[in-house]
Protein: Beta-lactamase family protein
Organism: Brevundimonas vitisensis
Amino acid sequence: MTEAGGLAFATSPQAVGFDPQRLSRLDDYMSGMVEAGQVAGTSTLLMRHGQVVAFQTHGKARIGDAEPLGRDAIFRIYSMTKPVTGVALMILFEQGHWTLDDPITRFLPELSDLKVFTGMDDQGEMVVEDAVHPPTMRELMSHTAGFGYGLFDFHPVERAYRAAGVLRADSLDNLVQRVARMPLMFQPGREWFYSVATDLQGLIVERISGQSFGAFLSERIFEPLGMVDTGFHTRPDNQHRLTAIYRGDGTGGLKEATTAFDMPINDFTQPPRMEGGGGGLVSTATDYARFCQMILNRGELSGTRILAAASVDLMATNMIPDAVLATANPLRLLPFNPAFGFGLDFAVMLNPAAIGAVEGRGTLSWGGGGGTWFWIDPENDLVFVGLIQRLADPVSDAFRKEARALVYAALTHPEK
């Protein structure tokens, strides 16, 4: 077996239950999207039974480059940072620093007097009421605490977050101060909304550990797992491997993005103003695959244990209340329902057959606003990491759906 980024390659796709001809359709799709000018480059890594089944790159790190995209290319992974933040917090959970039903005000006293949005008055001002209880750690990690984000434009609280520049804070301490001035979108535990909650988790890690968030991640996760290229900025010796980021130009082509979510694109060559737990990391396909394989192995990789198996199982348990799953709400980023929920910083597939999904029961997943995505399928013992360089839109969303369909269409021996 050869090695890539410390990962062992399977001797053949057939050896781990894949039809190579069918699997080549995934490669054809990715190369075709590059040739069609829909993305600058793609990097996809599929693992099963702890071995790399397929690892392919197409295109360039930057349109116009002479060299092809390398396997060691570094991507802005945006919200794929969130599960890493969750693992950091679970390390402290195992040390007895907090429990799921602790109020977050234990660590974030700035949020002790939160109000809850109930509507708008005749003067266009928000009407609020008292929160029935402070959000809990469980609610914070499952996006059911009621916080906004400032990325969207379809709710008064969201617009207030954006106007206040919550995500433009220059530190995590400053961020929580800005959040404290905003009402919650709903009473804690009563709904699901994608939010700034994971950045608040990063601040809790800092306050419990006494370290900067980046230092904690490096010491407790990245270095033990051999994630040598993952962090909040690139090292001087690998800045040339950082890929550019693009968006659709409105005419079927691409243009380089200078802003994302109404904020300047961080070039990641210098330390950021804020080490955000919600979307601040860069990584490579092999680094992030090592993280995913650790989760698939229930907390361990190559003899190094990051979490206890029980802690990973807890992260993979749905935390959205049944009453919320039983109803639809256009505020949710994804159509959560009794078959598809959200655990602690991961989406979790509860009953794939019920909603026509092809992955295994218990699959964990998420993605990033720059077009990156992953899933971890414990039932079929596989991991997939997909990295592209296109800000979230219908085209980048199509990559995720197509990759899933093509991978499982090539799987000849499902389950372990």
In short: The mean pLDDT is 94. The radius of gyration is 21 Å. Residues 20-35 form the longest helix (16 residues).
